[in-house]
Amino acid sequence: MDSILIIDDEPQIRKLLSRMMELEGYEVFQATDCQSTLKQLKLHTPQVALCDVFLPDGHGVDLVLTMKKLYPELEIILLTAHGNIPDGVQAIKNGAFDYITKGDDNNKIIPVVSRAMEQAKKNIGEKAKPEEAHTYSFETIKGKSNCMQQTVALAQKVAATDVTVLLTGETGTGKEVFAQAIHRNSLRKENAFVAINCSAFSKDLLESEIFGHKAGSFTGAMKDKKGLFEVANNGTIFLDEIGEMAFELQAKLLRVLESGEYIKIGDTKPTKVNVRIISATNRDLKKEIEQGNFREDLYYRLSVFQIHLPPLRERKEDIEILARTFIRLFSNKLGKQVEGMTPEFLTALKAADWRGNIRELRNVIERSMIICDKQLTLQDLPIEIQNSQQEELTSKNYSEFELAAMEKHHITKVLQYTKGNKTEASRLLKIGLTTLYRKIEEYGISL
Question: Is residue 237 scored above 90 in pLDDT?
Fold first, then answer.
């Protein structure tokens, strides 16, 4: 997500600018002086900085020069006081993108920030590698809730080590994103990151995928095959849904953890590897141990450092920033300009249970954007979320007629999107085709 650092020692100005930038869909970080600015830049690497001239421990114009030397890709907009043009001119010479006089119409700030962000992206694109590294950096993990900040802080600390990590949490909470970020911030970041879902294969196929096999070791093994551990040598392997791994195969994985070697299917000599293992599960592995489904010794080797990812319903203050991130993502993907979301739309998002967590929220935003006009409204949400929100409104003395009107409007928009294709509309609405025909007749919908 595009991010901005606001540098000002006046709390009210920081609060105002932060809110403006957040409403534009940017992620915002704050600093109050030169020292905290350099810490924030190192921690978050934003693309744009809005910097005041007068800071408690230095001058903003000089700070511009320092920031550009350390972070050439960063674009800096200086905030000058009382039309102090000489400061602005000197800032440009020091590498600032532009300067804005404090007290000017705030609407002037947004276009300047937008242009600076575009330039910053060009700067980053011209660097050698690392769009991929940035994609999986900790800065891309969205969330300002305390529980999420604590989770990210733990992951950042363990990333610099080489210990095994066990990520726990419900499906859809972003465990692979965390695994990628840990790898990209580790000493192994220049080597391979290999991910495999242990629940996607049978025992025999999973063994072959992970450890490889020799030609002729079983029917269909026409040639030698490298396993994923060999592919990930000197890098990181991510074993998702580790709780689904067959009990017999767990012993072989334990040997890798203990000795750094394993024997391929059909081979007689061991293969040595140097791989960091990050695993993840949505199961309670301690209960699986009690039930005899998971090895206790393997559990303790995998969970040297354990991180629990909180479900979305426990971090609802993060829903808005996640939603805005997905809106920007799908605006590009769908080639559709959407002017944000209405307050009712956001309220409904925050009221939903999100049993599918971030993955479900992402899918709902994408679906809503497909059928929306210029702005995401309550009627663009799936009917079950609308109904849930409407039940709350009804309890506050809203008439039930609004629910029917809302449903009619939503069905009409979906039918317009599918150009009258009722089979496709029923699939998108997640209702039976017969039910759709009945509601079309009931509401008198015509296209």
Answer: yes
Per the CB < 8 A criterion, the answer to whether 33 and 41 are in contact is: no
Give the helix/strand (H/E) hosting 308: strand 305-308
Closest by CA position to 370, among listed 403, 333, 405? 333
- With respect to CATH, is domain 138-308 assigned 3.40.50.300? yes
Specify whether the backbone of 234 is left (phi greater than 0), alpha (psi in -120 to 50) or beta: left
Q: Do domains 3-127 and 314-443 have the same CATH topology?
A: no
Model pLDDT for residues 130-173, shown as the tens digit of each residue: 444 445 678 778 888 999 999 999 999 999 999 999 999 999 99
Domain 314-443 has CATH 1.10.8.60: yes
In angstroms, rounded to a whole number, what is the distance separating the alpha carbons of residues 387 and 45? 41
Mean pLDDT, residues 50-72: 89
Sheet holding 193-197, edge to edge: 193-197, 236-240, 276-281, 165-168, 305-308
Q: In the prediction, which pLDDT does 72 show? A: 87
